[in-house]
Design brief:
alpha/beta, Rossmann fold, Alpha-Beta Plaits, elongated, disordered C terminus
């Protein structure tokens, strides 16, 4: 693991000592002799972790840390206070200034390297999330700003099988957090999955289980992978602390536990978690925006182009049916011309709503563009697809479309073409073309006519030598017309 570490200390010997220890682990080390230089380096250079001495002339470490954490450009850089001060009040002061951890002089080499590696991993994750968010924003896919919500007290889970110890820790946090204590380590892991927590505190003195096993399980599960974990360690238990940090534990506190220090450490972890959660949500939202039609809320053509191929490959591999339905709103241009584009948008939104209601949750409904929509239906035979097409037609024509600002609702009809997967040499493009051709035939045919390609092709095969194409088409159409569909056309094309 390589990273750029800034060492800040006004004593050259201390700087050289830390520089030598970190360089031996292949970290790139940058140094500063005072707080002002440290601030300037952090602003103009990418720094992954700051090791900051507390006692410096001029601007002390607490002031430097406070300024770093209040500058948006440097707020996410982890800061470790390196100090000879070992009083709880000093640690609390540093944590409240934004410090992520403390190392006490003389610095233990193993603790130094392990702690730095842990913070580098955390910084790398945050940087990756920020990069994704900034990239999506740069290409115009940034999600709309969310309405700021009232910050709720953090939910904290305490895992401690000693009742008195668990209640003592809970008492320190009540008033700062919504605390839940679970004595059974296995039940605690399940509880962490079931409920949304902001932090988990694990006792290092569990009698019924290995506390590091609990931490490992929390890191392995998808639901709790990014959940901050704080280990409560016994004095001198350095080996367990180091192993815990290697496993991904975010922080630790040594007994006897000070209430203010515990509250400050929990607050630090919760703040970072909520920041990263918001970054992940923004990335997820912008990805969703990239594949969603803004007007109707359906998936767009970009998503269809990628996902339909996946559905097709899966159907071929499993020898399962796959049907595709293309729907086109009839005379949509006339709606725009007569009532305006706002009315046209209302029609599109309402049709998308009715389309969703007519298909299954597993079906892929997308807006192709304009007034054209598509539904991909896995595990759907031609006969079922025909019924879905009829349902869409009926739900569209069944009741007029309400238009904002207009007293009279509009009658809307739709034409639909359907094609079903043919396994012999078929492909996505061919499947789409057949559905599109069926839609074209529906548009050409008389209103209220539904077409079946199997019937049409039977007519063509039987009569192609003796009957004119148009005459045959009309004759077949007359035999399968639906009297109840007096206001809309539905085309159905089924591959042989």
């Amino acid at each position: 693991m390589t990273a750029r570490i800034l060492v800040v200390d006004d004593i050259p010997a201390n700087v050289k000592l830390l520089q030598a220890r970190l360089s031996a682990e292949y970290f790139e080390v940058v140094t500063a002799m005072n707080g002002q230089d440290a601030l300037e380096i952090c602003e103009r250079t990418k720094i992954d972790v700051v090791l900051l001495d507390v006692m410096m002339p001029g601007m002390d470490g607490f002031q430097v840390c406070h300024r770093l954490k209040n500058n948006p450009a440097t707020a996410e850089i982890p800061v470790v206070m390196v100090t000879a001060l070992d009083q709880t009040a000093d640690r609390v002061k540093g944590l409240r200034a934004g410090a992520d951890d403390f190392l006490t002089k003389p610095v233990n080499d193993l603790q130094l390297v392990t702690r730095v590696k842990s913070l580098v991993r955390l910084k790398t994750l945050t940087d990756e999330l920020r990069l994704r968010a900034s990239t999506t924003k740069a290409i115009g896919l940034d999600a709309p700003a969310a309405t700021p919500a009232r910050e709720l007290p953090p939910a904290v889970l305490i895992v401690d099988d000693r009742t008195a110890s668990g209640e003592r820790l809970a008492g320190m946090l009540r008033g700062h957090a919504d605390v839940e204590v679970v004595a059974d380590p296995n039940a605690a892991v399940f509880r962490a999955v079931d409920r949304v927590f902001d932090c988990v505190i694990v006792s290092g003195a569990l009698g019924a289980a290995d506390p590091l096993r609990v931490c490992s399980q929390l890191r392995a599960l998808e639901r709790t992978r990014f959940l901050p974990v704080i280990l409560v360690a016994d004095p001198g238990d350095n080996e367990r602390i180091i192993r815990a940090l290697d496993l991904g534990v975010n922080d630790y506190i040594v007994r006897p536990v000070d209430a203010d220090e515990l509250a400050a450490r929990v607050a630090t972890q919760v703040k970072r978690k909520r920041f990263n959660d918001e970054l992940r949500k923004n990335v997820t939202d912008t990805i969703e925006l990239a594949v969603t039609d803004a007007l109707t809320g359906l998936h767009n053509r970009r998503y269809l182009d990628n996902h339909l191929q996946t559905l097709f490959d899966r159907a071929v591999a499993r020898r399962k049916p796959l049907s595709v339905l293309i729907a086109d709103i009839d005379r949509f241009k006339a709606v725009n011309d007569a009532h305006g584009h706002d009315a046209g948008d209302d029609v599109l939104r309402e049709f998308a709503r009715r389309l969703r209601g007519a298909v299954r949750g597993m079906d892929l409904a997308c807006r192709l563009g304009g007034e054209e929509f598509i539904v991909a239906m896995p595990d759907t035979e031609a006969g079922i697809a025909e019924k879905v097409a009829e349902r869409i037609r009926a739900q569209t024509a069944g009741s007029p479309f309400r238009i904002a600002g207009q007293s009279r609702a509009l009658d809307v009809t739709v034409s639909v073409g359907v094609a079903t997967l043919s396994f012999a040499g078929d492909g996505v493009a061919a499947l789409m073309k057949r559905a599109d051709q069926a839609l074209y035939e529906a548009k050409k045919a008389a209103a209220a006519t539904r077409w079946s390609s199997k019937r049409l092709e039977q007519c063509f095969r039987t009569n192609q030598e003796s009957l004119d194409f148009q005459h045959d088409l009309t004759e077949c159409a007359g035999r399968i017309a639906l009297a109840a569909s007096a206001i809309a056309g539905v085309g159905l094309q089924v591959a042989p």
